[in-house]
Amino acid sequence: MSSVTIGLAAGTLVVMAIIFTYILGWANVAFHVEVDPRIEAIAEALPGANCGGCGFVGCGEYAEAVVTQGAPVDKCAPGGANVAAAVAQIMGVEIGESLPYRPIVHCNAHTRDKHGISEYHGERRCATANIIADVQGCTYGCLGFGDCVEACMYDAIHVVDGLATVDYTACVGCGACAKACPRNIITMTPFRADRIFAVLCSNKDTGKDVKKVCDVGCLGCKACERACGLFAVKENLANINYDDYNPDDLSDIFEAAKKCPQKGIVLVGKPSQKDIDATADEEMPSVVTPDFKTTVDDTEWRG
C-alpha cells in the first residue's frame, strides 16, 4: 500500500513539474520584453560610475533613456568626449561641439574675509546651518561645513580655510557638489578652455551692505563692465556673457580683472601649458556666472 502511495505522489509531482514547466515556458514567450541591444552596448561603453551627473539614477538608466527617450548622448561627465563619441556611434548620430562642464564656487571669501560669523553649535552640515539665522553675515557665501566634499566621489573638492575649493585635476564634472550645496553657489559651467574667468561672488546686496559682511565680495561698481563688453552688472552682481566668451582673446577680460577693486574676477580650472604661456606676463590671482541662482532663491530662511 505504501509503495502505491509513494508511486502516486511521485507521479503527481512529475505531472505537476511538466505542467509548471509548460506554464513558465509559455509565460516567458507571452510576456517577453525585447531589449534593444543598443542599451546594453551603451551601458558597456559608459564608465559605470553611477554618479548621477547625467540626471539619471545610474549608468543603466541613462543608457536606456538614450535609446528609448532620446536623451542626449553627451551627458556622461566622467566619460567625457570619448564616451560621448562612442555612444553617438552606437546610436548612429553625429555629435556637435561638446564642452566639458565643471563646477565653479561663486564665493571667494575665506574665514578671514568673512564678517559677522556666529558661534554655531548645531549639526556641522551646510544644509542644517543654512536654515539658521546669522550663522555668518553674508547670506550668500560658502558656509564651509563640507556637504559638497561629502557628496564628491572623486575627492575633487575640499574646504580650505572656510571655503569650498575645487581640485580641477581630479574633477570629472559629475555635478554632485552643485546638487549638495544648499545655497546654490556652486554652478556647473561649460569650460571653453582648460581655464576660464569667473566672478567669485554671489552677493546681490548693495556694495555698502557687502562691505559690512565680506572683504572680497562684488560691490557692483561696474568697473568690469566699463572695461569689457562681456561683463554686465545685474542686481548689483557682475556677470560674464559666456555665449560670446572667446578663450583666444582675453585681453579685455584681463583688463577688467585688473580694475576689479575686490580682485574677484579670477581664472578657474586646470591650467594647460598653453594657458601658462598665454598668461606668463599677466599678474593674476589664480581662480564665471551663467544661469546663476543665489543663496535665497530656493531657501526661505536666511542663514
Task: Describe the protein's topology.
Blueprint: H1 2-30, H2 37-45, H3 59-68, H4 80-91, E1 101-105, H5 126-129, H6 147-151, E2 157-160, E3 163-166, H7 176-180, E4 186-190, E5 195-199, H8 207-213, H9 223-227, E6 231-234, E7 237-240, H10 251-259, E8 265-269, H11 273-278
Antiparallel strand pairs: 1-4, 2-3, 5-8, 6-7
Helix pairs in contact: 2-3, 2-4
Q: What's this entry about, in short?
A:
The protein is 33% helix and 12% strand. By secondary structure, the protein is an alpha+beta fold.
Count structural domains. Answer: 2
Order of helices and strands: HHHHEHHEEHEEHHEEHEH
Rg is 27 Å
Cα shape: elongated
Give the neighbour order of strands across the main sheet.
Answer: 1-4
Low-confidence runs of at least 5 consecutive residues: 282-303
Residue share in helix: 25-40%
Which class best fits the helix and strand makeup?
A: alpha+beta
Main features:
disordered C terminus, 11 helices, two-stranded antiparallel ribbon, 303 residues, 33% helix, alpha+beta, 2 domains
